[in-house]
Design a protein that fits this description.
By secondary structure, the chain is mostly helical. The chain has 17 helices and two strands. Helix 12 runs parallel beside helix 15 and helix 16 packs antiparallel against helix 17. The N terminus is likely disordered. Strands 1-2 form a two-stranded antiparallel sheet. The chain is globular, with a radius of gyration of 20 Å.
């Protein structure tokens, strides 16, 4: 069977753009299927089931937790067998369970099935897995491969949120969920068939177990610094993502305008990803990642004072660029510091623990707001966490 053609990247080494394009489509549809699309359908779900929001959001919570837990399993499969196994399992189980969920009349049963199916989709197709695959497909050109993948991923929210809304209005929420499940299954099948045709992503010699892989990696000072920095920073970023619209509205900006600005921030993430190839050719990844986290911190401070349109637009640009750059840079830097033979396992582990910190971030922000009576206090805390995360990455004598 003929190999999928490669094109040459800027530095002359092969960049498998077709395979990365398939991974990019997988990123768009897998994130859009529930991570972004769930909120669009929630009102219709509550009306149809005649239930409260709490029992339905249970499905989203289950999906978040399982994405992290099963993500470690999928990462281990990737290290041992290559990408075909997790992609094939994801295609078979995840969309099927989500499809079955859409046929339920009991809201609790729906939430449990939806959470399990979406968790399997997330575990087998989110960045912790696809960035690892992209890096292993483009040996010698890993940074550009990950950057290209995240450029695709930047379109997940801008495309899938409005598409989900149109589907909801035209065909109802149940058919929207079913259609989304079918599309995700098809793209996962395509990824299983065409991304890893020559087992290019198979690891050479993974550790004997996931536990051993994590323990050995944690003994490396640069890995500890990277992990702590990521976990601390995720507190701040999650607070920004949850509070961006309420804070702008509280500052006097109309809700429709605030929602549009939040969407524009998603598009602004491209400004943080498109120039990465040039930037990475001039400066070390760690330095750029530190700068990106500082940009996000500045964005949090701008959001805290966004009582007028000009400051809100500054937040959109500065925060969007910073958040957009952090995502690919995290994957690129992880590839540089994490042991290569266990990269899938370790990226899955990072995603698992990062999910918990992301989940607790908004909760801590809410407590700060309740205590101080000011939304801006939570954003100042978010900026502080991001700055600590940036400083934590600074080199030390033990690195």
């Amino acid at each position: 069977m003929a190999r999928i053609p490669l094109i040459r990247s800027f530095n002359g080494s092969p960049l498998p753009v077709i395979q990365i394009g398939i991974l990019g489509l997988l990123t768009i549809f897998s994130y859009g299927s529930w991570f972004y699309g769930f909120g669009v359908l929630l009102d219709d779900m509550t009306t149809d089931f005649d239930s409260g929001v709490g029992v339905l959001t249970l499905g989203y919570t289950i999906a978040q937790i399982l994405t992290g837990v099963l993500g470690m399993v999928a990462g281990r499969m990737l290290d041992q067998f290559g990408s075909r196994v997790p992609f094939a399992i994801g295609a078979l189980l995840g969309p099927t369970i989500v499809f079955l969920a859409s046929m339920q009349s009991n809201p609790t049963v729906f939430s449990i099935l939806f959470g399990i199916g979406s968790g399997v989709i997330g575990a087998t197709s989110f960045y912790h897995l696809t960035q690892t695959v992209a890096a292993r497909l483009a040996v010698g050109n890993e940074s550009r491969a990950i950057a290209l993948l995240t450029i695709w991923g930047a379109f997940a929210s801008p495309i899938l949120i409005p598409v989900t809304e149109v589907m909801r209005q035209s065909f109802g929420w149940r058919n929207t969920v079913r259609s989304s499940a079918v599309v995700v299954a098809l793209v996962l099948v395509a990824a299983a068939l065409f991304v890893d045709r020559d087992l290019a992503t198979r690891s050479r010699s993974p550790s004997a177990s996931s536990r051993l892989a994590v323990a050995e990696a944690w003994n490396l000072p640069q890995v500890r610094r990277y992990a702590v920095s990521s976990f601390v920073s995720s507190f701040g970023t999650s607070i920004i993502m949850v509070l961006q619209i309420p804070v702008m509205v509280a500052g006097g900006i109309e809700r429709s305008t605030a929602a549009s600005l939040a969407g524009a921030r998603g598009f602004a993430q491209l400004l943080g990803r498109l120039p990465l190839g040039l930037v990475l050719s001039r400066w070390p990844t760690r330095n750029i990642l530190i700068g990106a986290k500082i940009l996000v911190a500045v964005g949090a401070l701008l959001l805290s004072i966004s009582s007028n349109l000009f400051v809100a637009i500054l937040f959109v640009v500065v925060g969007g660029i910073g958040i957009g750059a952090v995502s690919p840079l995290d994957g690129i830097y992880a590839r540089e510091v994490l042991p290569a033979q266990d990269l899938g396992t370790l990226m899955g582990s990072m995603h698992f623990f990062g999910g918990f910190t992301s989940g607790f971030g908004p909760l801590i922000g809410a407590v700060i707001i309740d205590v101080t009576g000011r939304d801006s206090s939570a954003l100042v805390f978010a900026a502080l966490m991001l700055l600590i995360g940036a400083v934590w990455l600074l080199p030390s004598k033990s690195d």
